[in-house]
Design goal:
The complex is a heterotrimer of chains A (about 500), B (about 500) and C (about 130). Chain B has about 500 residues and is mostly helical. Chain B has 20 helices and two strands. In chain B, helix 2 runs antiparallel to helix 3 and helix 11 packs antiparallel against helix 12. By secondary structure, chain C is an all-alpha fold. The N and C termini of chain C lie far apart (about 60 Å). Classes of the chains: A mainly alpha (about 500), B mainly alpha (about 500), C mainly alpha (about 130). At the A-B interface, strand 2, helix 5 and helix 6 of A face helix 16, helix 17 and helix 20 of B.
């Protein structure tokens, strides 16, 4: 179907970018400022949702912003794959905005205006990545996302934040300029275009050696996907306030990286081209190693947020692994895991934040018996963890199931083994937390009177946990979108 | 088409220079309106000239009625019209900020400063307009002499820096003159287009190679192409703030433009100047220059000095790009001339704005500036992003073409140097952004909003700064039309 | 040996300009005194002026002042007059050279007033000690 030219994708991107302005202007009136944030989030979600029906029918939207380089305009194009990411991001941003208010006010954080404004810019960039119609546009928004999250990562403005900020930029900006940019240019000089085209744009144009080089450059170039050895920024970025960690480093930023790799494999290099050159193993090997090593490191972390961060690194590799399998089912699993993991992981991060707000506790070893004082939070945590581990009846099961089938179908039994081992490891690093919280005896000097976090923190985390449940039972639209993304 | 429109773009600042000297002596208040009026008029006229050239083609004016190739011709095509607009536009913007700086630094010598300033601008325009190789030498020296004077007006060691520049600049001019002498001996003409017609017959001549080598080396010294850059950092950083604003964005860029213009004029299918082996050598030199200059920039703790080393690295970008000898590289070089001029202007304006309030260019004085001067720092950040090459700022797109040219020519050393330089720029600017963002750590440990007094620079500096920052993005987004309508048209098909 | 001598003699004007140029260059680069540097620069410029002028010369050529009517009728033998163009160009170049020298001298005055010396080493030492 020919794409419909429409301004709405642009509006979806712009609304929060322009929205940063009233947020900055209402610096001195916190209530007004937060109203703006919520309002923008709602408008954004509405616009994105209004685009959904046509996408589900197999259509697409397109909007050209500027003609910059011959054959490569800055262009937005909404298709099924982008829609999944955009929906997940804009939906979870709404929850995060509500949660942010509870979190930031409870802790009386400084520079909240800057925080909300940067957040608004970051979500714009995220939607830009989702709706990008070609690699150049995606690169543009990808960089915008990196830079707009810098003030969020370094929000605390202390020595630790500064060190983390440095690490964050070194990894993210260093790889995107040093690796992704040359790869993009090589692609352009070979193909003469950078449009995302199903089946890739390099078919029959590049030798296997060049393809292999491109695969490696792109995989590491989009370091937001956290493939080892370029994962170090993610644990470092945990120094940010928890809403940032939950939304950006559980959903938007990291998934922008994975999404970029999806686009590269599906629409630039092309699964078939990679299949012919027999290069899928590079992707799957890198992903498998990251997946196992990250899970093992997660076991050793005592800081809850750092454990979640390593868990994220592992889970991101599930998605990359799915794409790298180069089989339809595996890819389906990878795409769906993007959404499933988002809901699960944001719940877990919200819980970590809620625990910190309520009890100022950051370390798992301090959480003995805490579940009895904060039952709702830990129940939500339990649901989120189950989803990440991949147990029914939670969303994570669906995607992981598809990944397993993909591995079996492709006869890649090693990958099957990797997936199963990793799931066991996931269980091994999540379930003890829940056991401690509910069944371990609180230490003798425990503070009494810890209550649940404020309502504004609690509601979003319940909703996202519930969302994980819903995604198990009502995953048809998601499945449909994922199928459309693979075979329009 | 015959026209004298473009001559006025140059003549107005030139004539106003004398007016400023006479009127400014008695009445200082007359200086600002005179200078701004002249440059504003020139800018408007330059826009008009650009439109004329795009619709009617080249405009030509023969000085004194002597027809070329004997007389001096002032020729303007779309590309030189663009340069004309760039020069007049940038000097117009820079002047707003220069006025308060000069008023502060050179209270009783304002009229002298602005006389030189306007003659310099006229000279730069003349460089772009003239079609005569010897006239080019004269224009080159007009710009240089005024620059020497402007730099010597600075504080501290400025006279010494200026003197070193005089020596190097004169050597450069002499080299250029010598090269022109050889060319004249060989061809018997000084009109550049006319010279080009004789070149195919002279292919392989040693004298011709010597002539071109002298001309190139002369221009390279003037544009501070590494390793001939020694004079630039001190000269530019010691110049008075008001002069630095004009010199830093324009001087090197216009000289690069001259080199490119000569290359494009002399290049023809019968005389493939660009496909000589020497091109590869020059690209190597450019790559090494970029890496060295970027590394030197890392060692600086003074904002202005750091920027001067970045300028030197950027010269390497353009020279290398031009000698890649393919369409993409040449496009990148020409586009980068425009973009780099704007980026440098933005960063220098920001630096001057900061120094206007803090009194120093040293990194230590930048602490906590995001709170103190949020608008200035926002514009600085945009400029920094452009230098690093982050889309959609214009710096990204010229770098795109340069890199693409490097890849297509198979000159990977150039590609590596560009990427290296982008990464170094990222380090350089984020170091500054970090200092300005974090301030002194002990103070900001506490939570709750600290009330810091806003201390923005005066509007005279702030408004051109903000406008330039916006321009960086606007120009970036209009790269397509710029390349398709102006730059690509000018690159011969023989590539 | 004689060949080389003959070769040099045949183009002696070029050799003179090259030698002058080298002297000037050496003074600019090798000397630490600013006045000597400036003198070197002047010698350098002069060598180029000499080069230009010598290219216009012709054996037996006279001054290029022509009878307008004779010229219009094409009755002028170009071999009989020297080429005036280099002279014209060099007039301009001399003007440029003088202006540069003037600026340089003025700048040097400022340097001397500030540091009390024109030896580069001593100036740099004083700057360091500031």
């Amino acid at each position: 179907m020919t794409p419909i030219v429409s301004f709405w994708p642009m509006a979806a991107v712009l609304v929060s970018l322009l929205g940063a302005l009233p947020i900055i202007l209402s610096d001195r009136q916190p209530n007004l400022r937060e109203s703006w944030t919520i309002l923008i989030a709602l408008v954004k979600l509405t616009i994105v949702a209004s685009l959904l029906p046509w996408i589900l029918e197999g259509g697409s939207y397109v909007f050209t912003i500027a003609e910059v380089i011959p054959g490569v305009p800055i262009e937005l194009r909404v298709d099924a794959l982008g829609m999944i990411f955009a929906l997940v991001a804009s939906c979870l941003w709404l929850f995060t905005s509500i949660y942010s208010i509870g979190y930031m006010r409870s802790l009386d954080e400084h520079a909240q205006t800057r925080y909300y404004a940067s957040f608004a810019v970051a979500i714009s960039a995220t939607l830009g990545v989702a709706f990008a119609g070609n690699l150049l546009t995606m690169y543009l928004f990808y960089e915008m996302l990196s830079l707009s999250t810098y003030p969020l990562v370094t929000h605390e403005q202390n020595a630790e934040a500064r060190a983390s900020g440095r690490k964050y930029l070194t990894y993210i900006l260093g790889t995107s300029i040093g690796l992704a940019l040359p790869a993009m240019l090589i692609t352009y000089s070979i193909a003469g275009t950078l449009d995302f085209t199903t089946g890739g744009i390099l078919a029959g144009k590049a030798s296997p050696e060049i393809l292999a080089l491109l695969v490696v450059l792109f995989l590491f170039g989009f370091a937001k996907a956290g493939l080892m050895p370029f994962h170090g920024w993610l644990p470092a970025a945990m120094v940010a306030p928890t809403p940032v960690s939950s939304f950006l480093h559980g959903v938007a930023v990291v998934k922008a990286g994975v999404f970029a790799i999806f686009r590269i494999i599906f629409d630039i290099l092309g699964p078939e081209t990679l299949q012919q050159a027999d290069l899928g193993w590079i992707v799957t090997t890198l992903a498998s190693v990251t997946l196992l090593v990250a899970s093992l490191i997660a076991l050793t972390q005592d800081s809850l947020k750092r454990r979640l961060a390593y868990s994220t690194i592992g889970q991101l590799s599930y998605m990359v692994l799915g794409a790298g399998m180069l089989s339809a089912v595996g890819q389906l699993g990878g795409i769906m895991h993007l959404a499933m993991h988002a809901f699960g992981k944001i719940t877990l991060f919200f819980c970590a934040g809620a625990i910190y707000v309520a009890s100022k506790k950051k370390y798992i070893s301090q959480m003995d018996g805490l579940g009895r004082q904060m039952p709702i939070t830990f129940t939500a945590f339990f649901l989120g963890a189950l989803s990440i581990i991949g147990l029914p009846p939670l969303g994570g099961f669906i995607s992981k199931w598809n990944l397993v089938i993909g591995a079996v179908d492709g006869g890649q039994l090693i990958l099957l083994l990797v997936l199963l081992t990793s799931s066991l490891l996931n269980a091994a690093y999540f379930l003890p937390i829940i056991y401690r919280a509910f069944f371990a005896d609180p230490p003798a000097d425990a503070v009494v009177g810890i209550k649940e976090a404020p309502v504004l923190c609690l509601v979003p985390l319940c909703l996202t946990a519930f969302g994980s449940l819903l995604l198990f039972f009502f995953h048809d639209p998601l499945l449909r979108l994922a199928q459309l993304a693979l075979a329009p | 088409m015959k026209s004298n429109l473009h001559m006025y773009v140059m003549a107005v600042p030139l004539l106003t220079a004398f007016l400023v000297n006479i009127c400014g002596r008695t009445n200082r208040k007359a200086i600002a309106p005179l200078v701004l009026g002249a440059l504003g008029f020139s800018s408007l006229l330059a826009i008009f000239v650009l439109r004329q050239t795009l619709t009617f083609g080249d405009l030509s004016y023969t000085v004194g009625g002597w027809t070329p190739p004997w007389g001096i011709e002032l020729l303007v095509d779309p590309l030189s019209a663009l340069m004309l607009l760039l020069i007049s536009g940038i000097s117009f913007l820079a002047t707003f900020a220069a006025l308060p700086c000069v008023k502060r630094d050179l209270e009783d010598r304002q009229h002298i400063f602005f006389t030189l300033y306007l003659i310099l601008i006229a000279g730069l325009m003349g460089l772009v307009l003239t079609a005569d190789a010897f006239n080019l030498y004269v224009m080159l020296e007009i710009t240089s002499i005024t620059t020497y004077g402007l730099i010597a007006l600075g504080r501290g060691r400025a006279p010494l820096s200026s003197f070193n520049y005089i020596i190097m600049g004169s050597v450069a001019a002499c080299f250029y003159l010598l090269g022109v002498g050889y060319l004249y001996l060989l061809t018997g003409t000084l009109n550049m287009a006319h010279i080009a017609t004789y070149l195919p017959a002279l292919q392989g001549s040693g004298a011709l190679a010597t002539a071109l080598a002298f001309i190139l080396v002369g221009l390279w010294i003037k544009m501070a192409f590494f390793p001939l850059h020694g004079w630039l950092p001190r000269a530019y950083s010691d110049a008075p703030d008001g002069a630095g604003l004009l010199i830093a964005p324009l001087m090197t860029k216009v000289t690069v433009y001259l080199m490119v213009r000569l290359m494009l004029t002399f290049q023809s299918p019968a005389f493939p100047l660009l496909s000589m082996d020497v091109g590869t050598l020059i690209v190597w030199a450019a790559a090494i220059g970029i890496i060295c200059a970027s590394s030197l920039a890392l060692g600086q703790r003074n904002l202005k000095l750091m920027l001067t080393y970045i300028i030197i690295a950027e010269v390497g970008y353009m020279v290398g790009g031009a000698w890649l000898a393919n369409e993409q590289g040449m496009t990148g070089a020409l586009l980068h001339i425009v973009n780099d001029a704007l980026m440098t202007l933005c960063l220098f304006l920001a630096a001057v704005a900061i120094a206007y309030r803090t009194g120093s260019f040293h990194f230590d004085s930048l602490k906590g500036l995001y709170r103190k001067m949020p608008l200035t720092m926002a514009a600085f950040t945009v400029g920094a992003f452009a230098m690093i090459g982050i889309p959609p700022t214009c710096g990204f797109f010229s770098k795109w073409y340069l890199l693409l040219g490097g890849i297509e020519a198979g000159q990977w050393q150039f590609v590596v140097a560009l990427i290296f330089s982008s990464l170094v720029n990222a380090v350089l600017f984020f170091r500054i952004i970090e200092i300005a963002y974090f301030g002194s750590l002990q103070e900001s440990e506490h939570h709750g909003d600290a009330i810091t007094e806003r201390q923005e620079a005066p509007w005279w500096i702030l408004s051109p700064l903000a406008l330039t920052a916006v321009l960086l993005i606007v120009v970036g987004l209009s790269t397509g039309p710029l390349v398709n309508n102006i730059i690509r048209v000018m690159i011969p098909v023989s590539f | 040996m004689e060949d080389i001598a003959a070769h040099i003699m045949a183009k002696y004007n070029y050799w003179i300009y090259v030698v002058l140029m080298m002297i000037g260059f050496y003074a600019m680069i090798g000397k630490r005194n600013l006045v000597k540097k400036l003198l070197g620069m002047n010698i350098f410029q002069t060598s180029i002026i000499l080069f230009f002028i010598s290219t216009g010369a012709k054996k037996g050529g006279s001054i290029p002042i022509l009878d307008k009517y004779a010229a219009l009728q094409g009755a002028v033998d170009v071999n009989q007059v020297v080429n005036p163009l280099p002279h014209v160009l060099m007039l301009t170049a001399i003007v440029v050279g003088v202006s540069v020298t003037g600026v340089a001298l003025a700048v040097m005055q400022r340097i001397y007033r500030k540091y009390g010396t024109l030896e580069e080493d001593e100036i740099l030492l004083k700057i360091e000690n500031e």
